[in-house]
Amino acid sequence: xxLHGYWRSTAAYRVRIALNLKGLEVxxxxxxxxxxxxxxxxxxxxxxxxxxPCLVDxxxxxxxxxxxxxYLEETHALPPLLPADPVARAKVRAASLAIACEIHPINNLxxxxxxxxxxxxxxxxxxxxxxxWIAEGFAALEAGAGQxxxxxxxxxxxxxxCLVPQIYSARRFGTELTRYPRLTEIERNLLALPAFDRARxxxxxxxxx
Length: 209
Hints:
Blueprint lengths: L1 E4 L4 H13 L4 E4 L10 H6 L7 E4 L2 E4 L1 H11 L10 H18 L5 H9 L5 H22 L13 H15 L8 H11 L2 H5 L11
Helix pairs in contact: 1-3, 1-7, 4-6, 4-7, 7-8
């Protein structure tokens, strides 16, 4: 397997955690989003969207982080990242999508570049935009977080793989996190696990300071 990603991409961060939890060996192939490497013809041939991550497994190239995680779940069953019960599984997926579809996409690099460039918005407006949408999403996640060490009890789920990278992004942009004590408690519990710790952005070979 080859993982094409970027050290600070929250979507790639989710997939790194999944690969670590599943105990899968993967070769890293960094894609520098700051230099526009995601638009190189060779990379677009793998992933026409020009986004990260992209997981190559043999002849297959897969994009979109949650699709990749579900592929890993279906091809490497242990440890499970989705509950067996259909209702519980749907709730985990809903929380995952609340982050991956409602918070993250409108705050990613290409959206911010459009706001900055085409719409002429200053950096302070962009920072306010980012914090607003993170706060809206986190308020709902805080209210819905269950009991136990993780978002859905005693087992790590796909929703936890989405939460930790999003909190990393929230801190990066100065989001006030004291309003979300349950989420930050869960984050501490998760980052104590080796699979999450190894996946931290600062621990990646392409990380810059």
